[in-house]
Write a structure and sequence with these properties.
There is one protein chain. The protein contains eleven helices and 23 strands. By secondary structure, it is α+β, with helices and mostly antiparallel strands. It folds into two domains: 308 residues, Bira Bifunctional Protein, Domain 2 (BirA Bifunctional Protein, domain 2), CATH 3.30.930; 92 residues, Anticodon-binding domain (Rossmann fold), CATH 3.40.50. The strands form six sheets. The protein has a five-stranded mixed beta barrel. It has a five-stranded mixed beta sheet with strand order 20-19-21-22-23, with helices on both faces. Strand 11 and strand 12 form a beta hairpin. The longest helix is centred in the middle third of the chain and has 21 residues. The radius of gyration is 25 Å and the shape is elongated.
Length: 417
């Protein structure tokens, strides 16, 4: 992409009511635009990152047997009445239809839709287990949207639902899902600061499990057992008598954290509400056992910015970087600089390398500052100085060291990174 052709631009202006670091920085760098409290437009750079996170999630869900579909965001009231959540789910956006007087909600989650959907296809034990999932925009009527992409009123969410013949089968898949989630966080650069966290199971089970990433911007307080590398949410720490549920260690470390994923054993709560049953090998009907597995690509994006940055801007993990290379042409009266920049741009693009090419009429200092703010993995500079050295200046965003490389060395280093 030629930066001169990008219709959006970095800005120094930040909405006065935006206090979170992730939103301020993403707005400044031209990744998102704030429409209203908790509602953002993903601009070209931002959409590239969000799409990459979603693809990582998609790949890891597919590996454990997930089958992707897409369910409606507009849900009829009667589905939510069957589970008694129309009047008790306090974050529902409710809307009416003037043509038929029916009421709907903009879905914050999809148990009420996926369960009757499964009912149309699950009849026998031979039809189980199944693992449908989707990645879709969700809506929650948060009383106070805050923390930028970490807590919005409109956000992207992956939810996978598992359907089983018994609890043993659910438990086996539950462990597989845990492993898949940690693989997602590894690929998104969050593994080292993300903990499997025991939380309340509500009406479903004794515990649910959250995946909490340690960050100052976090809304949750967790207590980390450094012996087990697991954590306990503050909401249940008293029930645990201040100790680790795994090893009973009483010396837990308190941290602020962001919940980037969660998994629940739903058991028969929703299958019973809709009468979802299967016939076992003996011809007996049984309720289907269910699990739920959520992860927020948009929340991951905001969390990554909170934990991967310096005082100059974002430092994207390699798999999430909007472009692999930020190519900067330092303006000069020497036509050879432009020719060389164009040449290496075409070379990289032809090798299917994602390049953001800063070909604008700006000073070198302005270009370098914006490059650090955007945070692409590599920076390549073409200038009179590099031409005299018969090469290109190469630098990683997460390093202060730069080096001059020949075209062959540059392309090889980028391709293998």
């Amino acid at each position: 992409m030629r930066q001169s052709k990008n219709f959006t631009k970095a800005t120094k202006e930040i909405p006065k009511d935006e206090t979170s670091f992730n939103a301020q920085t993403l707005i400044r760098a031209g990744f998102i635009d704030k429409l209203a409290a908790g509602v953002y437009t993903y601009l070209p750079y931002g959409l590239r990152v969000l799409t990459k996170i979603s693809q990582i999630v998609r790949e890891e869900m597919d590996k454990i047997g997930g089958q992707e579909l897409l369910m409606p965001a507009l849900n009829p009231k009667e589905n939510w009445e069957k589970t008694d959540r129309w009047g008790t789910f306090d974050a529902l956006f409710k809307i009416g239809n003037s043509s038929d007087s029916k009421e709907y909600t903009l879905a914050p989650t999809h148990e009420e839709i996926v369960t009757p959907l499964a009912q149309k296809h699950v009849f026998s034990y031979k039809d189980l287990p199944i693992y449908p999932y989707h990645i879709q925009t969700k809506f929650r009527n948060e009383k106070r949207a805050k923390a930028g992409l970490i807590r919005g009123r409109e956000f992207l969410m992956k939810d996978l639902y598992s359907f089983h013949v018994d609890e043993d089968d659910l438990n086996n898949f539950y462990l597989n899902a845990q492993k898949a989630y940690f693989k997602i966080f590894e690929r998104c650069g969050l593994l080292d600061m993300t903990y499997l966290t025991y939380a309340s199971g509500g009406s479903f089970s004794k515990y649910s499990h959250e995946f909490q990433t340690v960050a100052e911007a976090g809304e949750d307080t967790i207590y980390i057992c450094e012996d087990c590398s697991i954590a306990v949410n503050s909401e249940i720490i008293e029930d645990q008598k201040g100790g680790c549920p795994n090893c009973d260690n009483k010396k837990l470390k308190q941290e602020k954290a962001v919940e980037v994923g969660n998994i629940f054993k739903l058991m028969t709560k929703f299958s019973s509400a809709f009468g979802l049953e299967f016939t076992d090998e003996e011809g007996k009907k049984n309720p289907v056992i269910m699990g739920c597995y959520g992860i927020g690509p948009s929340r991951i994006m905001g969390t990554v910015v909170e934990v991967h940055h310096d005082d100059r801007g974002i430092i994207w993990p390699a798999e999430l970087s909007p472009f692999k290379v930020h190519l900067i042409e330092v303006k000069s009266d020497n036509k050879e600089v432009r020719e060389e920049a164009e040449k290496i741009y075409e070379e990289l693009v032809n090798k299917d390398i994602e390049v953001l090419y800063d070909d604008r009429e700006l000073s070198a200092g302005a270009k370098f500052a914006e490059s650090d703010l955007i945070g692409c993995t590599f920076r390549v500079v073409v200038s009179e100085k590099t031409i005299k050295k018969n090469g290109y200046e190469f630098k990683r965003r997460d390093s202060e060291k730069s080096e001059i490389l020949s075209k062959e060395e540059l392309v090889d280093k980028i391709l293998i990174a």
